[in-house]
Specification:
The complex is a heterodimer of chains A (about 500) and B (about 525).
Chain A lengths: L2 H15 L5 H25 L6 E9 L4 E7 L1 H20 L7 H20 L3 H10 L1 H11 L4 H29 L7 H5 L5 H18 L8 H8 L2 H26 L6 E6 L2 E3 H21 L4 H22 L2 H33 L4 H4 L4 H4 L1 H15 L5 H16 L1 H25 L8 H9 L7 H19 L2 H15 L5
Antiparallel strand pairs in A: 1-2, 3-4
Helix pairs in contact in A: 1-2, 1-4, 2-3, 2-4, 3-4, 3-11, 3-14, 3-21, 3-22, 4-5, 4-6, 4-11, 5-7, 6-7, 7-9, 7-10, 9-11, 10-11, 10-13, 11-13, 11-14, 12-13, 12-19, 13-14, 13-18, 13-19, 14-17, 14-18, 14-21, 14-22, 17-19, 17-21, 18-19, 18-21
Chain B lengths: L2 H7 L1 H19 L6 H25 L5 E3 L2 E4 L3 H21 L8 H20 L3 H19 L6 H32 L4 H13 L3 H18 L8 H8 L2 H27 L1 H8 L20 H25 L4 H21 L5 H32 L10 H4 L1 H15 L5 H16 L3 H29 L13 H19 L2 H9 L4
Antiparallel strand pairs in B: 1-2
Helix pairs in contact in B: 2-3, 2-5, 3-4, 3-5, 4-5, 4-11, 4-15, 5-6, 5-11, 6-7, 6-11, 7-8, 7-9, 7-10, 9-13, 10-11, 10-14, 11-14, 11-15, 13-14, 13-19, 14-15, 14-18, 14-19, 15-17, 15-18, 15-20, 15-21, 17-19, 17-20, 18-20
Classes of the chains: A mainly alpha (about 500), B mainly alpha (about 525).
Chain lengths: ~500, ~525
Amino acid sequence: MAWTIFISFAGALIAALCPKDKPAVARWFALAVAVAGLAIAVTGYAAGFGQGRQVFVDALWVPSMGIHFMLAADGISRVLVLLTGIASVSGVLFSWNVELRTNQFFAFYFALIGGVYGVFLSGDLFLLFVFYEIAIVPKYFLIAIWGSTRREYGAMKLAIYSFVGSAMVLIGLLAAYVTAGSHSTTLAALASAGLPVSFQMWCFPLVFVGFGILAGMWPFHTWAPTGHVAAPTAASMLLAGVVMKLGAYGCLRVGIGLFPHGLDPWGVSFIGIGSWRDVFAWLAVIGIVYGALVALAQTDFKFVIGYSSVSHMGFVLLGLMTLNQIGVDGAVLQMFSHGIIAGLLFAIVGRVVYDRTHTRQFAELEPMHLSRRLPFAAWAFVFAGIASMGLPGFSGFVAELQVMVGAWQANPWWTIVSGIGIIVGVAYIWRALQKAFFSDTLPTPRELEVEQAHKFAPITWPEYAGVALLGFCTLAVGLYPRILLDQIEPAVRTLLAGGTQ
Amino acid sequence: MNYVDLFRATLPETALEIAALLVIVVDLGFLRRAATSTRVAVGALLGVAGCAAAIWAVYAAGWGSLSNGSYVVLAAGGSAAVAQVAILVLTALTLLLFIDTGFTRNPGEYVAVVLMATAGGLLISAAQDLLVIFVGLELLSLGLYILTAFAKQSGKSAEAALKYYLFGGMSAAFLLFGFSYLYGLSGSTNLPRIVLGTYIASTSGAAPLLVLALVMIAVGLGFKIAAVPFHFWAPDTYEGAPAPAAAFIASVSKVASFALLISISHAILWWPSMLHLGGRLTVAVSSPGAPMPHYTPGIVTAWPLILMVLSAASMVFGNLAALAQSSVRRLLAYSAIAHAGYILLGLAFFGWTNLSAEAILYYIVTYGLTTIGAFGVVGVVERATGSDKLDSFLGLQKRNPLLAAVLLVLFLSLAGIPPLVGFWAKFNLFAAVLAVGGGPIPFALVALAIAFSAVSLYYYLQVLKRAYVMPASDESPIKAHPVTMAVLVLITAAVIVLGCFPALLQNWIASFYGM
């Protein structure tokens, strides 16, 4: 599985050298790289059943500081690597129409993908951080060069938020490294270093918030909607699909894995909040409800999906804070599920609809009668919307149900309040569906004329293929969740048992 | 000390001086009628050969330090040797960048002045004696004033040089005044002896005078490294000086000055062992690398405190001021101030194992390398567009893709993005600070430094945004001289390779300490 990283970085380098004036070459090359990455991820995943933690590479990288170049994967990593493989293939498919500087687009794209694979496979805290930072810069350029609405603002905001988050992580990382005696930076060594509880108490929130910024944690989520809206389709798919998972994965692997005592009660409690766990769980619950309510009030189609991401990522963070088997299982499953569903939603809104209508405002989409003119888009969105609402049979249902059950076991109020978010979630998808595709008004003869004059370009094969791939994944996981849970459960069990790695 | 020893210990400096004279003789004696470009190329190549000879001399000197009876005048090996080799390599790179410039009709003099200033830099990185330090500093500084003024047709260059000279003269006066107090307090001009002497003096009630002397010295050296509040010359000089000269000031002079600061910090920290030798009083020596004990009076507490204040001020002010710049050279100047702040943090929490010295050298050497590359790119763009404003970088990725890629890598390295070398430099340095100084103060300062390096990404991205994102107003290709391009690509490759394999440079630096 280590090859996923190397292939992606090599792909980035070669894509940069592809001829500028032949976008088709770059495209097919990119698809080949992405498919190769996915193939490795799938075989690695299949080989991982029944295995615990596998170590692929372990070499001393900086001997004087005990930094290892260590790539390893347990069940959680394997699931997320699989997600990254799927997201990267579908991202390439949905950016088939990028004509501007295509070779550079895919160079930045694969630099980002390589960084993401790297984070999920790192077995060394320091290496994880290096890959985490590598992923920041390509995001900036992808959005700033190929984006749309207020792209430079959105890109800079995203870069600054990410960098501030990673600065917090770096402070925590340095502190943990020095406190543990500056011998080794592998996750296993740091977890067993016996960091003092008082140290964990202040280092945990620092690192958790640092990673949480990228996971869309309320109130540090504001980069997410603007960044998603500004990004080109493939980049917003990756942002929502895998980059936000980097944050959540960091919270789980580094925050909870290395500083488990940071979640212990403070000993004092104020209005029912007596530990960092309560604080972050309530932030997650607020994020769920707030994201859903704000999504309900948007006039821009993509902002609806952007805020829905904040809401769904709230479930991931809430699941992590339950600290029980079923809740954390649900959180990891939700990472996968949201990666697929949000990718699908962004693909439909950004590629299938926006690239044809050139608007995302509901007021302008309403008179276009898209259900008739783009039936494929409409029905694909119905499908994705149902998955996003969390109806049984789709991956979102299994994931959110597990999180809710876990939250009930930990604190019933969390479940009750976040239930509001689920109900509003149905409402905003419904509203978007109606406004964008199924409007009530009948077309006037004048509008019919315009429609005849400006037919939308037909749906292309990459779009069909991308929708089919993502749709299949959410359905497969929804109908047979064991395919992921069999790997997630043992990994979560060892992680929660404290013997982190 | 006899003249043979003296000659052997100053072999690198001698090699440079001979090369400088040779350049002048060849340029004025044989090439008077040759085209300027030929004279520039011959001068630069002779200069590079001189640097190569001096590097050989550094190794050949065999680490024999020059001592006068019982005390060392010029140290050898260790930090001094690392800094000397680095200075010579960086000088050679700036000389190669000189080949593709047309700001002067006197290339021979330019190269000669560069080599002499470099000799000054070599002296201060090894000096252990106040007099040698002062002579070396002045040799370096005078060279830098001349280099700044070298573009005679440019009013900005003259203005920058005058400002630099006036500030420099004043700071030299402060430095000398501080030195005279130190001599008065301790009765010696030798660094370790001064530390010992001032300790005794401060127990007999001369402590305020000692603090005054240290503040004076901090003014003088703070000026050399452009630490806030002694930084006023830097933006103007960086903006006005010809590009290769600015690169020289930003890299070589910084490496030399920080090497001097390392010597001073090192001398200060050796006091416990020397007190043991002197047998005057017994001190509970804590474990190596432990923070400086609180009960120690005088120099051991005052000096780090001064450095901490300078460091925090430089980090905050440098980064914030850089946000507002529209000229890339001024932006680099303010970022240099910020970087000086990070390094000062390493000096403020200096451990008397080699850990701190190695981390600081790692930082300053890689910073010097990167900044030479940055000035190389600025120089090329400036020659093509006539300005170093942010907007002259518009559409660089279209006008010269390779140059834009070089700019991308170098600026991201300056911002501290892994896996480039600038990231390892920062990490190394901050880890060393935390390993030496326990407790909330060093931790808070490191947190401040990391927070402000997040801020710094913003202004580096402002330049990269123009190169990569915004459309070009003028799309004509920018051509660069092949030698310049080769130097820039070499530096970029070094930044990437050293970033991917950070142990290479660490091991190289550490190899000087074993001897």
